[in-house]
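Morning run. Coffee first, then this:
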Amino acid sequence: MSALPISGCLPGRTGKGNGRHVNRQRWLLHTVTAGVLVVGLGWATSASADAIFDFEGTDAGGTGSATMQFSGVGTSELTVNLDNTSPTTLDDGTENANAPGITGFGFDGVAPLPNLTSWSLMAQDVFGDSTLIGGSPDSGSGDWTLGSFMAGVDLDFLPQVDTGMDGALFNPDAAGLDELLPGGQNAVYFTTASLILNFDGDFTPDFDDQFSPFVRMQNVGLNQAGSLRLGGTPGDNGIPTDPIGEIPVPATLGLLGFGLIATGVAMRRRRS
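And here it is:
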């Protein structure tokens, strides 16, 4: 059977009948196209973060800031991407004088908590290469370790020296400010840092507490004298209202899209 034209009159037919058939052809084309677009939207949505939080505070004349993105909320694998966004300028406008480092971050989980089976934390070294700086079993540099200093799951930095700054996570913009970065036996690192947690069941972070999630910063402000403990505020995506719903939004969009495609194909075959 030869392909049917999308527009114009069908061979051997004229008048209103042809118009109705052409309209059906166009409707079928639009239906299938809409289905493809909806499926694509569903796939694009599934790749986005489930929740984004911003952190900001000031001390010793300097500002410390960060963002934290959660993906995989309500599943057995949670990914947390952390960026140190602190400016290198002091609040009074003095340039290249502020280099806050993240020395801790964490969040609670909704009870009952599944068992944590493995975790890893990657960051960038001074050369811009991705480096494993902590994980289980004990791996990487070991500068970061998993603790339980707050309720639920809490990743916390354990200082290696008295100043507690070796291994901290800095804004890449501070990479050239050697006089502001701590020395010592361990390297400093730069964000984006990526934490992956694997559980034996579905895990959902609990964002009800003021300090869940939280970020701790040191080396803040003039002469690196300040420190901050910051609770997160919902960013662009806010807090997921139903992270463990029976059918997440991406899946719903996908089902709708495939339904539209199937409807168009079925009607095309019936008319053929």
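The mean pLDDT is 75. Good start to the day.
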